Each structure stands twice: as structure tokens, then as C-alpha cells.
Amino acid sequence: MLIAALLLAVQDPHYPLAEGHAWTYLGSDGKEYVRKVAAFDPATKQYRIEDPLMKEGFSIDGDGLKHRGKTLWIQLPPKKGAAWEDAKEKVSGAVEGEEEIEVPAGKFKTFRVKVTTPAFALTLWLAKDVGEAKREIRLGDQTMTLSLKAFRPGGK
Description:
- The chain is mostly beta strands.
- 0% of the residues lie in helices and 60% in strands.
- It has no helices and 13 strands.
- A ten-stranded antiparallel β-sheet has the order 1-4-3-2-13-12-11-10-9-8, with no helix packed on it.
- The radius of gyration is 15 Å and the shape is globular.
- The relative contact order is 0.22.
């Protein structure tokens, strides 16, 4: 299992973080994937996230979710029509619109966010108070979809 740290400067209900939060996803490969906020360290203000698919650290600041603390991946809070680009890292993103989706966990009103990198394209459906309701990763001609099966808030 891979571990990633998220630095908390600003909370956003479309990417909620709290110790004990857990998301169970059903992958298009038929497997279940569990992502969990394992702990919060008040000294460093970092959340430790256990995520079987996340390979590198992400942080959250006043702009949004950043890869390796510098490259903006998701502008928060999401706003329809918002777009961003990091020319140096060749990463761009946009909030493509609002969409109601149905996943195994239920129906959610979401913001559809697309992130494009030189290696892959990522589409996220962010739901208020839940976070990622769905994630689609395209790498070449392969696509992996993760659909939220259950969200368990921390402390419950």
C-alpha cells in the first residue's frame, strides 16, 4: 500500500479531509480500492493518506490540490469554466461543468474536472462533502474507472 501526505492549509467540501475518512471504490477491473485518511500530524499539518493508486504526495493550499507541493492539479473550490495550466510541468486542468452522476454509492451532483499531463488524462467527478465520487484515468489506449461504492466519514 502506498502512502501519501496531504498538507492542510484550506479545507474545501469538494475534497474533504478528516482523520478516519474512508472511500471504497469499485474499479472497472472488478476490484475494490480503499482510500483512507490514516492520521493527522498537527506538528506538520499533514494528513497521511493510504491510497493503493497514489504514487506521490499531494498537498492542499489556498489554490487547490497540488502535486509534489507545486503543480496545481485541481483548483478549489471548483467553479464551472475555471481553467489552469502549468506550462513548465505541462499540466493543464479545467472544470468542464456540473453533472449528476450515479455510482454504486448513489446519485451525486458533481463538478467534472479534467486534468491532462504528458503521460495520462484524468477526469474526476467531485461531490460536495464526499470528494471524488468517480475517477477515470486514461493512459494511452487503456482506461481505468473507479466509482464510489461507499464513503465513511471519520469517527463513524
